[in-house]
Predict the 3D structure of the following.
Amino acid sequence: MLETYWDPVWLTLKLALLTTTVLLMVGTPIAWWLARSRHWSRQPIAAMVALPLVLPPTVLGFYLLLVLGPNGWVGQLTQSMGLGLLPFTFEGLVVASVLYSLPFTVQPLQNAFEAISEGFLEAAATLRAGPVDRFFFVVIPLARNGFITASVLTFAHTIGEFGVILMIGGNIPGETKVLSVAIYDHVESLEYTQAHWLSAGMVAFSFIVLVTLYALNGRTRMGAFR
Amino acid sequence: MTSGFTTSKGWLLAILISLSPALRAGEVSVAVAANFTDTTRTLASHFEQETGHTVSASFGSTGKLYAQIKNGAPFDVFMAADIRRPERIEQEGDGVASSRFTYARGKLALWSPKPEAFDSAPHYLTEQTFARLAIANPKTAPYGLAAQQALEQMNLWSSLQPKLVRGDSIAQTFQFVASGNAQAGFVALSQVKAWPEEKGTLWPVPQNYYQPIDQQAILLDRASNNDAAKAWLAFLKSPAALSIIQDYGYDTVE
């Protein structure tokens, strides 16, 4: 019994951690480009990144099922690579979560990058710092808050994901049955005790995450005025 | 319509007629187990033409609908895919006792949209050359429970565990299979009958492999005076309705 209780918890944490890691790698260059580029395609791409904020999760779930399924182009690609199909797998959930949480990574990072004045970068360049050095030793420290906010929001948002996972997950214990789906399952089966345990845990967890986030932001803001 | 009634007496009559529940076209809101979705749509259009009442139907797994009713969902009639939930509704005082009856007996089928996906279903289930097999969630969907019973009967329940995907209702289960994301699945025979494409592979599961799926309906307490709801239940027992239900592959008891 203990095992089935903790299974969805570990699975959810694993999914959130992996999604956050992937998104920091994918989202950082996108955010940097959005913050610095003057190209005409900047606005349309910014809008595309923000789409998951406004679309119902069912839209994303529907298209993922089509595209990742046996007749979709990604589905055919993964099959020809011998990877099988992504729906109903943990990997499929990672793909879905990356798309679903993309704006939660990109937007805080973009804001942080936009706040960095060109002057710092030019100063670093005159000291013969190359683009890579400038990024790692100037941009990342200056955008530290942006990175923290992006990571925490992405992590928390992935944990709160439900609709997309219900549509492409298939409710498989240990593989796709994450916390939110487990709670839904318990509620639908009128197993309110189990639903209470998991739900109360989620409330406490989310509260702690947000308090930590606010505390971190508050401290660094005060630090800046010191 | 009221243009003919110019006198005050005429108005009074019109108002009285519109207030009289027996003459007014009513509304019935029905919570229907997902396997009966297409059948309900066909039945409802006949019923609406015949009586002038309107039917508003919500579809979901029996367990989910039961939970919604227990939490005060505004339904007049509950059409489950088992006996257990309507019985509980009755025992818990949320339904009209004398109204409960079996409106259909469902059949379970193993289905794949691919032609010649398998020759022998038991062989196919033992070989497990497929990546995913879809069933409905046994906890909330009676067809999922029947699928579990059938697989247990064939001694395949535990060996199939890693390949099983569970649909939220039998409707989602069917969608998993129809979209090809699961190669085959245990669905309701009625869903295959309603599927527009002829091709595909079907194995009606022998009915002694699972407990009979007797699907019961019950009039819910809040609708004990709703004539449209009563008319709907009566209509379900009519020969016209029974023949529609049979056309979708169900057995009927009466």
Notes: The CA atoms of residues 121 and 127 of chain B lie 10 Å apart.
